């Protein structure tokens, strides 16, 4: 357990150090990938996850359904009843759309 906490705390530092090395060597594509990994580890949110995961009130099962069915960009265009239809859970779209 102690080692897991240690790795979690230092993973961000290690990746930032790798990013600095890659940036110094002017490897643009690798620097971009390292920077993306640094951001994902700092925020503890992978790039494939939707920003809905930041809201604590929303149940995990609904977040996973929305991520699986609908891309994040498409959610802006949908009304609450359409979101209810997509995830097939009654009355959730009204509550969480706000």
UniProtKB/TrEMBL annotation:
InterPro entries: Sec63-dom. This is SEC63 domain-containing protein. Residues 5-58 form the SEC63 domain. Coiled coil: none annotated.
